[in-house]
Amino acid sequence: MRTDSHQSRIRKSAALVLHLLRMNRLVFVIFLALFILIFDFYVFQAVRVVSANWNPNTRKAIIILYWLLTALTLFGIFAYNFWGIQLRSLRTIILVGTFINVFSKVFASLFIFAGDLIRLGEWAWQSLQAKSIVSTSENTISRSEFISKVALAAGAIPVATFSFGIISGAHDYKIRRIQVNLPNLPKAFDGIRIGQVSDIHSGSFFNKKAVLGGVEMMLAEKPDVLFFTGDLVNNESSEVQDYMDIFSKLQAPLGVFSILGNHDYGDYRQWDSPEAKRQNLEDLKIAHKQLGWDLLLNENRFLTVDGEKIAILGIENWGARGFTKYGDLKKAYQGTKNAPVKLLLSHDPSHWDTQVRPGYPDIDLTFAGHTHGFQFGVEIGNFKWSPSQYFYKQWAGLYTEGAQKIYVNRGFGFLGYPGRVGIMPELTILELNRG
To answer: What's the domain range around 34?
Structure first.
């Protein structure tokens, strides 16, 4: 009886917690909806001003379309949060559509607000001077109309930019060829070409043909060895199944070596049980094997060419800033002390400054990914900027500190926003030279 009573109390407590979580979510969604409506009404004033002299039918169509998009956005938010949508493509459409819609309205609102401040200042000044400002020309565009047009044009920029990033940027693969000099590199490895692919995120893809094109671009480079530096999936091992035939083509004469990234562990979704989560990870490890990739789980391998060797170390994910720390560099390092050159595969670049450089000064070159370059930024010549640089000291490209180097790949796939603006998906060829 006591056991039954105890279990009953547990069930009631669990039900109460679930109810509170749902209530909190409902409150959040209601506030989000109100936030969106406020900005939509604010921006709508500019739409009214600009379309005031348009053909009545055109004006009516524009107004209907404007509020239809708002209704679809609100419907998508409620559906996403309370209807348990399982189809990944539909979830992505809802998230991305909501983001672009809200971001563009907020951006436009900044200009409208600036115009309102100017008009408020003029009103205050006129009140103090007890006189009004008279327009000098009937044909001069009013400040209200001008600001409204500027605001709507500004709001259209994010829509156009992010839409182009989806249509064109998502699969606009760029090959980056880098030469790295390593003084201790054995002669047999002088000129070895290492191909690096990172952050595939197979659960996000929507164009299988384009993905195949990216793989074929890497194969055309004829790398001697291939490294994959984590995040094969977003959350579930099943995501990669539709792409096994494509990624299994990634092979090289000296082998393909891979590691896990933070998304590969299934830490970002709710599982029915701990066992289900463990099984998902085991299935992902099997997928690496089926692809013909040598998955390094806090361990190392030696590459041998003409009797000379270099070491490849691979650790499980280890990240600062609250990311999971499954990696064990000490374990992966064991047995490699005498190797003339050590190459480390570590998904998160924050690991380099935190553990690698302070504790393992003889690790010559680290290969990382993780940042995606934020999938947004500017790269012109030697200049590069991205919001990613405010979170990661090493976020894209080659970095050197003393005798050690790290290369951060910008990622093959994408996550969340299904596109890229300015920071294109990357295929890397690093040529190692003695020097």
So the answer is: 2-167
